[in-house]
Amino acid sequence: MSLQENLMVKIKEAMKSKDKVALESLRAIKSEILLAQTKTGATEDLTEAEEIKLLQKLVKQRKDSATLYKEQGRDDLAAPELAQVEIIAQFLPEQLDQAALSKIIEEIISKVGATSMKDMGKVMGVASKQLAGKADGKAISNAVKQLLA
After folding, report:
1. Which residues contact residue 44 at a Cβ distance below 8 angstroms, ignoring those fewer than 6 apart?
2. CB 92, CB 55: distance < 8 Å
3. Distance, CA of 104 to CA of 63 (rounded, Å)
4. Average pLDDT rounded to a whole number, residues 52-60
5. 48-71 vs 20-40: helix axis angle to the nearest 10?
6. pTM (whole model) above 0.90
7. Closest listed residue to residue 51, CA positions, set 131, 132, 139, 135
8. What burial letters (b/e) apply to 37-74, b meaning 16+ CB within 10 Å?
9. Three-state secondary-structure class, residue 45
10. Measured between alpha carbons, how far is 16 from 99 in angstroms, rounded to an integer?
11. Is the per-residue pLDDT at 65 higher than 90?
């Protein structure tokens, strides 16, 4: 089942159960997909990689908003953002844990031949492509910094 078909099923379920947070999150995904399709021309569907990138962008936006709200002491606004993150993340591939991420980055470092922080750009380029959709960019960056330091 494609992302759009799965999304429509979930929207119907959220409408029936009157789950406002889920419905808002799912409609945001649908809106982003439609915007992306109109940019490329409505005749073609998004590739799986484009869908994953779009979903990651939505998750990142909500996490950033929640962080800002928490810094300002507005937990009442942060909670719905984090709830939306949970719902949107259901459509992403399973994320790697820290141990698995570190192992893969160690392999990339040895393959690229990186020895210091000066080589971080090379490692990040390869890691970002290889781990697209499987790990957050910030987590990849932190792991690379940790291993190269």
Report:
1. 37
2. yes
3. 25
4. 88
5. 130
6. no
7. 132
8. beeeeeeeebeeeebbebbbebbebbbebbeebeeeee
9. coil
10. 40
11. yes
